[in-house]
Each structure stands twice: as structure tokens, then as C-alpha cells.
Amino acid sequence: MLSFMPQSLVNQFHHWSHHARQGMTRLADTHPATHLAVTSALAAVGMLALIAPIFGAAALTANLILETLAGNPWTMAQLPKWLALGALVISGLWIARLRFPEPEGVRIHKDSSPRLYSWVNEIRRELRAGPIDAIYLQQDFGVRVMRSPNGGLPLTFRNILVIGAPNLQCCSEQQLKAMVAGALGEVSLHNTGIVGWLSQLSSVWMQYQRVLAGQRHPLARLGHVFFSRYARIYAQLVAPLMNNRVLLRDQYAHLIVDDDVLAESIVMEVIVPNFLDDYYWPQVMRTATQTPEPTFKAFSNMGIVFGLRVNNQNPHRWIRRAFAMSPQDSHGPTLRQRLHAVGQHEAFLPELSSLKAVDELLGPDQRKLLSQLDEVWQQEKSEEWRSRFEQAESDRNRLQMLEERVMQGNIEGKQAMEYAALTKRYGTSEQAAEAYDRILAMNPEDPRINFGVGKYYLKQGDERGIPLLEKAMQMDKHCVPAACRLLSEHRMQVKNSEQKMPNAIEDWLKVV
Question: What is the per-residue pLDDT for 133?
């Protein structure tokens, strides 16, 4: 984008931009009123960049009409004005004809899911929020309202509600209601001040950047150069105004649901993403080792697996980890801060109801909608899936060769650990345990194998791993840092499992 400039000038530009953004961030803390004025001025720059051709064409047209009415004859001296008018009209029409893509996911039509639209409209009217033009089902966890310009100019907007399939599949209707209310609150009369408007513009400018990047028109290229820089600078400048966005969303939700439901919803925002990242998606992708094409219906089965497996994953540890986070680590308000802000002084594991929001709100059409989402996901994952399957085939061939060496009693060192690791990956838990026991029996004095087997035992909750790690440290000092970390983590897990589940937030902090 800046390839026409010498590299030294490009570097200088980046350096200046970085320091300018840092200065504006500090300005928000020291002089908030000035920061708000600067942010408003920068927002006006973006608006003017889009509407300037239209106002410029109107002003130039008025000037030419006045000259004609004054009796001034047409001369070649007016040619630049006519050319400029033509350029402005073409630019204005091109901008006005811009169309923004719909969000990723599957559109939920009103005629197929009237219960969901009626439910959303109920919340919207209670919050006095703007109308929702469409609802989309997306793959990722989260609920948001996407404000998309209605046409090419940022004068009127369409509000599109985007709901994550994990929210519908794992949360109850009331928990989801709190999440939807928080998102709708951002486009309601409760958020109509200058700060709310400036915050919403950040996503609007990013949409312009994306839509212009996908076009080859000369004006699109020029616009993309502008918005790729402008949107990034604006986002960093407006960021201090959005620091409390999560807390404000909780306040909007509090207008719709009671304290207990809101607290449950906040905690579910910790539990569900952690369940998906730590357990569900790794388990889904493991099936890629068995088939060359993705056939598993990841979103259709998500709610069932969540109900059956979430308690087995000890969700308390995810909540403890969230409490231990600082605002810097969580990039926003922590779980403890969010609960305190809505007047909650107890943390508890929500009741993981078997009746999910998807059953209440989508009804019989849920199977069709989730199947559509499954098809999109399967297409997106097909290449990665095939690559994993091919790697698994190669690993299984390698494992077969290593098993032959084990049968001959001739395996040691790196090959021994590779044999155990591959057996663990592709075999049953019993086969994995047997493989680790076997390589230890064959190589009792190898520090690497003592460390590897000890680590495996501890991960299984087997105390036999402790003396093996201690032995590895005695034989090889390079094992000391990693072995000490593993022993420390194991002792902390034992300590936490032996303690009674605390309720008060202050008691949680003592645990972590």
C-alpha cells in the first residue's frame, strides 16, 4: 500500500503512527474530554471521506447553475469544473452502490423460526432497541449485533443479530436471554450517547475496509489504502472508550433478567468456551485419524456431548482459572469484576439444564439449521481433515514398525518414547498404559524414559510418577526444571481436589 514510498519513509511513518496512537491512549487517562473531542473529530474524518463526493458534486452543480443563470457564457475555462463534477458524481454513485456482505453463518428465516424472532422482539421492545433485520447462526461462541450500513453511506444501518451455535446448544433459554439482552442493549436507547456512537463506528469502519479489499475498482483500491490505516488507528483511539463495554452489556442484561440468571450467564461465558477448547474440539478432530473426510456432525451433536461430558471435565477449574486472571491477562473485565459490578458476591456452578435454548427457540427446525452449519464446517475442514488422516496413516505404519522392535526386545531412547506416544495417540488407554510400562521395564536406567513415563503417570493421576521424576532429576540435571514444574502442578491439583468447593468470591481467591 505504501510501496511507492522509500523504505525509510515507510518505517518512519509506522514509527510515527505507533507513537501517535500511544499518545492518544495516554490522553484518554489524563484528559478524557480532549480525548473524546479528538475521537469525535477522527470519526468525522471517516464520515466526510464517504459523503464528500456527494456534497462536493452538489456544491459544484449549484455553482455551475448560478453561473449559467448569471448569463456567463460557457467557456473552456469551465471545463475543469465539469470534469471535476463528473468525477464527483461517479465517485458518489459508486460509494452509494456499495453493498456489504452478510455475516458468516446460516441465516435463520422468520417464517421457519417465528418463536425465536418473537422472543428477540420481546427483549428488543423491553430495552427500546432498534429493529433486528435478520438473525444469523454462527460457529463461534458469542452473541453480537452487527450494524451494517444500509447502502454505501454510513447514514442508515441494518441491525443483524448473530448468535453462536454453542450458545444455543449449551446454554438454557434464560442464560441466552441475558447474553442477547446485553448485545441488544448496545443498539438501544440506553446507549445513544456520543460514546456509544463512537464505539459502534469502529466495527463500521472495519466493514468498509473488508468490502473495499475485495474489489478491483480504482476507487476501491484508493479507499482500501485509506480505510486499512484509518480503521486501525480509529480502533486503537476509541479502545479506551470501549474498556467498559462488557460491564455495560451486563448492565443492559440486568434490565431484563434477575441477579441469579445474569450470574449464571456470566459464568457460562467461561465454562462453554473452555469446554470447547479443552475437550470438545480436540475430541472431534481426533476422529480425523479414522476417516479421510469429515462426517461428524459437530454442531448437531454439540449440545448432547456438552450435557454428557461437561461435569467430567471438572468445570470448577475453569472458573478458578478465570478468577485468577488479572484484567491484563483477560484483556478486559475479569469474572470477579463482572460479578461484583452486578452486585453478585457469590460464585456458583450454574445448573447445566438438559433443556437447552435451541430446543425452546428453534423447535423442529433446529436439525435443518444445524445441519447446514455442519455442512459449512465440513467443507472448511476437509483439507485439514485429509491432512490429519494421511499423517495418522503414516504414524500407524511407523507404530507397526516400532511394535515389531518391541516384540524383539530391542527398543530404547527416542524410539521407545515415540512408540509409547503413538500408542497413546492411536490406541486405547489400556494399550497406552501397557506401552509405557513396557518401555520402562526395558530401559529402567534411561533418564529420558523415566521422565516420560513419570509424566504420563502424573497426567493420569497416578502417584507412581513422582519417584520416576525424582529419579530422572538425579540422573540428568537437564530434567530438573520440567520435572519440578510437573510435580508442582500435580501437588496443586491434589490440593484443589481435596478442598471443599467454595462459594464466596473471597474464598475463591484464597483457593487460587
Answer: 94
* CA of residue 209 relative to chain centroid, distance: 19
Residue 127 pLDDT: 95
* Mean predicted lDDT score pLDDT of the chain: 85
Please tell me the distance from the alpha carbon of residue 74 to that of residue 389, in angstroms, as a whole number: 75
Residues 6+ apart with CB under 8 A from 197: 43
Q: For 185-197, give the DSSP string.
A: HTTBGGG-SHHHH
Angstrom CA distances, 227 to 91, 222, 230, 234, stand at 16, 9, 5, 10
- For residue 148, give the H/E element and its range: strand 143-149
- The count of C-alpha atoms lying within 13 angstroms of the C-alpha of 126, restricted to the half-sphere facing its C-beta, is 17
Q: What's the sign of the alpha-carbon dihedral 391, 393, 397, 402?
A: positive
User: Longest Cα pair distance anywhere in the chain, in angstroms?
Assistant: 107
Whether residue 511 is predicted with pLDDT greater than 50 in this model: the reply is no
> Rounded distance, CA 448 to CA 426, Å?
22
* H or E segment and range at residue 146: strand 143-149
CA distance 208 to 391: 41
pTM: 0.79
C-alpha–C-alpha distance, residues 90 and 87, integer Å: 5
- Residues 238-260: what's their mean pLDDT? 88
Task: State how far the Cα of 54 lies from the Cα of 260, in Å rounded to an integer.
Answer: 52
Handedness of CA 249, 255, 257, 263 (dihedral sign): positive
Q: Determine the pLDDT at residue 7.
A: 52
The 10s digit of each residue's pLDDT in 394-408 is: 988 998 999 888 888
CB 152 within 8 A of CB 208: no
Point out the least confidently predicted range of 65-69, 160-164, 173-177.
65-69
